[in-house]
Amino acid sequence: MGALLLIASSSAHAQSRPVSPQEPPSPERQDHRLLLYNTHTAERIDIVYRRGDQYISGALAKLDFFLRDHRTGDVRHFDPRLYDILSDLTFSIGHPDGEIDIVCGYRTPSTNESLRAHTTGVARNSLHIQAEAIDLRMPGVDTFKLRQAALALRRGGVGYYPHSDFIHVDTGRVRQWCFDCPASLTTGD
Fold first, then answer.
1. Environment class of residue 169 by beta-carbon count within 10 Å: exposed (0-12), middle (13-18) or buried (19+)?
2. Are 178 and 162 in contact (CB under 8 A)?
3. What is the rounded CA–CA span in Å between residue 153 and residue 170?
């Protein structure tokens, strides 16, 4: 409730060796970082969640808590491939260090049913319930552009909610939808 959660992995910086401008970091040592803001809890997290091809279990646990169902406080382990989608998305739009506003992370089945009863556009078997989906926006980035970049990744489902100004990404099958959009956007571009 207005609390600020800032979690940063300080040891990630201390253990990294300096890299000259001409030498890109080697893939096995490359840090994968996310900067997230939760629009419901006003918490922020700046965290390295993967080093090279190794996920950092402590960082994943912190992200799971950060993306908890804010209505109930329940936490579920997220599919870490979702974090890779977020990281790749920021990179693909030219904002690799950009902050992502989280509109929705994990939802309990009861939260999902409550949302279905009071709003439109909520799927009965939402992947939010499985901790395999995130709704997001990025400050200063056009949401339509964000949608296009997510579609280009071809790494799961992409939903576009222009009237609420967010997109949905998930680790399910590759598909797309546009909620309450003109026909040109619901069938693809």
1. buried
2. yes
3. 12
Residue 118 CB contacts under 8 Å (≥ 6 apart), including other chains? none
Query: Residue 117: inside a domain, yes or no?
Result: yes
pLDDT digits (tens, 9 = 90+) for 48-101: 999 999 999 999 999 999 999 999 999 999 999 999 999 999 999 999 999 999
Count of domains for the chain: 1
- Whose CA is closest to 64, among 40, 51, 47, 85? 47
Residue 84 covered by a domain? yes
Residue 160 lies in a domain: no
Q: If residue 134 lies in a helix (H) or strand (E), which one and from where to where?
A: strand 133-137
* Token reading at 72: 């109930």
Closest CA to 100 of 130, 127, 134: 134
Owner of token pair 């309450």 = 180
d(CA 144, CA 167) in angstroms, rounded, equals 8
pTM here? 0.79
The pLDDT tens digits of the residues spanning 90-140 come to: 999 999 999 999 999 999 887 777 776 677 667 667 788 888 999 999 999
Token pair 């419901």 in the structure block, residue: 40
Q: Is residue 176 in some structural domain?
A: no
Q: How far is Cα 89 from Cα 54, in angstroms, rounded to an integer?
A: 19
